[in-house]
């Protein structure tokens, strides 16, 4: 690609000495939450499979599901799912060409963090109240 | 600031040999999951805490069964493409191939186990009726 103008293009940041802006942090968090939430799906699928296997298998999976380990995994996966959903919505807007400016990316980053925490708290309240 | 890259290097289906089909698949499944995610959360929240017979009867009903099946299948297919992007970013050569293969096998295993469990619950409910 010898005919590309290489002189006037932005440099990739050196990550060890670069303080990541909030838009970069929320971007990498999209990837992390997308992979981490599969822990919750695994727990649910194991729990479903155990229910059709035997009473003993279900008792084991159900104990894990209702223990503090299950609570941490399920709550973490639930927040990750909300976060990944909101970040995914932002990607749909990015694809359509909206919200790419630095200031709006900063605002949407704050909205994603705050929105995912609010939705997670509402989900927990509804789960324990109903 | 010019970001222009030579057109001749991106003609046809480009360097990926599959064009933008992964990106488009992620977009379609993302929109589907936008609807499925809140529904799946409600379904799971209603099921946790039930005794074994209750869980089997609950997922034997159409709405919980279909929402769960759709969420797990669409979600894990979305996951295959999502991990693929991460694998392409961080791994090269043989490790990249191994990562992709493991990701695909893992995802389809999760789908198979979930569909098997849901089918068993549906049939168990059918026998009771």
From TrEMBL, chain A:
One of its GO terms (molecular function) is electron transfer activity. One of its GO terms (cellular component) is membrane. Its cofactor is heme. Membrane-anchoring subunit of succinate dehydrogenase (SDH). GO terms for biological process: tricarboxylic acid cycle. Heme binds at residue 84. Belongs to the cytochrome b560 family. This is Succinate dehydrogenase cytochrome b556 subunit. Keywords: Heme, Iron, Membrane, Metal-binding, Transmembrane, Transmembrane helix. It is found in: Membrane. Gene3D superfamilies: Fumarate reductase/succinate dehydrogenase, transmembrane subunit. Part of an enzyme complex containing four subunits: a flavoprotein, an iron-sulfur protein, plus two membrane-anchoring proteins, SdhC and SdhD. The complex can form homotrimers. The chain crosses the membrane at residues 20-48, 68-89, 110-129. It is a multi-pass membrane protein. PROSITE patterns: SDH_CYT_2 (PS01001). It holds the Pfam family Sdh_cyt. The heme is bound between the two transmembrane subunits.
Automatic annotation (TrEMBL), chain B:
Keywords: Electron transport, Heme, Iron, Membrane, Metal-binding, Transmembrane, Transmembrane helix, Transport, Tricarboxylic acid cycle. GO terms for molecular function: heme binding; metal ion binding. The keyword Metal-binding applies. InterPro entries: SQR/QFR_C/D (IPR034804), Succ_DH_anchor (IPR014312), SuccDH_FuR_B_TM-su (IPR000701). The keyword Heme applies. Pfam families: Sdh_cyt (PF01127). It is found in: Membrane. It is a multi-pass membrane protein. This is Succinate dehydrogenase hydrophobic membrane anchor subunit.
């Amino acid at each position: 690609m010898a005919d590309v103008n290489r002189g006037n293009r932005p440099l990739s940041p050196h990550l060890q000495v670069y303080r990541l802006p909030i838009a970069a942090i929320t971007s990498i968090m999209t990837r992390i939450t997308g992979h981490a939430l599969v822990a919750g799906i695994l727990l649910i699928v194991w729990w479903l499979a155990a229910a059709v296997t035997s009473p003993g298998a279900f008792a084991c999976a159900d104990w894990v599901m209702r223990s503090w380990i299950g609570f941490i995994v399920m709550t973490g996966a639930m927040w990750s799912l909300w976060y990944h959903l909101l970040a995914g919505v932002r990607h749909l807007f990015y694809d359509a060409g909206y919200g790419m400016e630095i200031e709006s990316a900063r605002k949407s980053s704050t909205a994603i963090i705050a929105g995912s925490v609010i939705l997670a708290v509402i989900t927990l309240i509804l789960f324990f109240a109903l | 600031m010019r970001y222009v890259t030579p057109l001749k290097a991106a003609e046809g289906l480009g360097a990926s040999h599959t064009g933008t089909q992964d990106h488009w698949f992620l977009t379609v499944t993302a929109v589907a999951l936008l609807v499925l995610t809140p529904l799946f959360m409600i379904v799971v929240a209603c099921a946790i805490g039930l005794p074994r017979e209750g869980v089997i009867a609950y997922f034997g009903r159409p709405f919980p069964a279909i929402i769960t099946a759709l969420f797990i299948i669409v979600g894990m297919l979305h996951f295959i493409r999502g991990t693929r992007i991460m694998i392409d970013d961080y791994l090269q050569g043989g490790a990249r191939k191994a990562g992709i293969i493991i990701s695909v096998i893992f995802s389809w295993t999760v789908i198979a186990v979930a569909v098997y469990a849901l089918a068993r619950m549906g049939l168990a409910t059918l026998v009771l009726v």
